[in-house]
Amino acid sequence: MLADNSVHDDTAEPRKFPVLSAVPVPVEEVLENPVPGWSALTLKSLVTEGGLFEGPFGSMLKVSDYTTAGVRVIDPDNVGFLTFNEKPEKYISHEKFAAMTRHGVQTGDLLFSSVVTDEVRSCLLPELPVDAMLRMNCFCIWPLPGLVSREYMMIQLCGAVCAGQLRAYAAESGRPTVTMAQLRSILVPVCSAEEQEEIVRRVRSL
User: Fold this and answer.
1) Which residues pair with 123 in a beta bridge?
2) CA-CA distance, 12 to 16, in Å (whole number)?
3) Phi, psi for 192 (deg, rounded to 5)
4) Cβ neighbourhood burial of 104 (10 Å; 0-12, 13-18, 19+)
5) Which residues of 143-166 are buried (b: 16+ CB within 10 A; e: fewer)?
């Protein structure tokens, strides 16, 4: 999915925005050829304290714990490419959730699937009729307010620069997943709030 990502400005040279692409862009290329006014910052530096967490280990949440109603469990397959997938639909009891509230998520939270295959997947959690929590291989990211918006971060995580780094980590490990340490270390292209809003607007229109 590609777009003409130059900004229309009659008084200045058009600036190129990162685009959603299946072709990874090496982060070295970004560092060697920086766009004026942009920075490449680690994801760790862009989140709040405690603002990157994941679902519980598999041993804490077993198949026998699932119920037909209660607290929604966000599965990696629910995290789509810029969109939330309603299926699968899994639940645990409120009693079980009481011991795992630190894995809880709320409407608007930025979700990321650590399962990296053909595409890197991230989305915002929509409003649900029940409480929700993460399952293993799902991350929640809270960007620093005023520095990057959640929707902009979501787009960049799925974009060519970040996706290239994440795929490289997955290839090195020989597993189709990335760890929290690897996610924290990736470099994320950061621009002004105005340009972030324009990128979000353009991606929404695709």
Assistant:
1) 111
2) 12
3) -70, 160
4) middle
5) beeebbbbbbbbbbbbbbbbbbbb
Give Cα separations from 38 to 26, 34, 45, 52, 59 (angstroms): 16, 7, 15, 23, 42
Quote the pLDDT of residue 67: 96
Closest CA to 82 of 118, 120, 43: 120
Interatomic CA distance for residues 54 and 142, integer angstroms: 12
101 secondary structure, DSSP code: G
pTM as predicted: 0.85
Band (pLDDT 50/70/90 cuts) for residue 24 is low
Residue that has been written with the tokens 């997943």 in this structure:
177
Write out pLDDT tens, residues 25-70: 666 666 666 678 888 999 999 999 999 999 998 788 999 999 999 9
DSSP state at residue 117: S
C-alpha–C-alpha distance, residues 6 and 8, integer Å = 6
Q: How confident is the model at residue 117 (pLDDT cuts 50, 70, 90)?
A: confident
Count of other CB atoms within 10 angstroms of residue 28: 10
The answer to whether 47 and 142 have CB atoms below 8 angstroms apart is: yes
Alpha helices in 21-79 (DSSP H): 27-32
Return the closest-CA partner of residue 114 out of 183, 21, 45, 26: 183
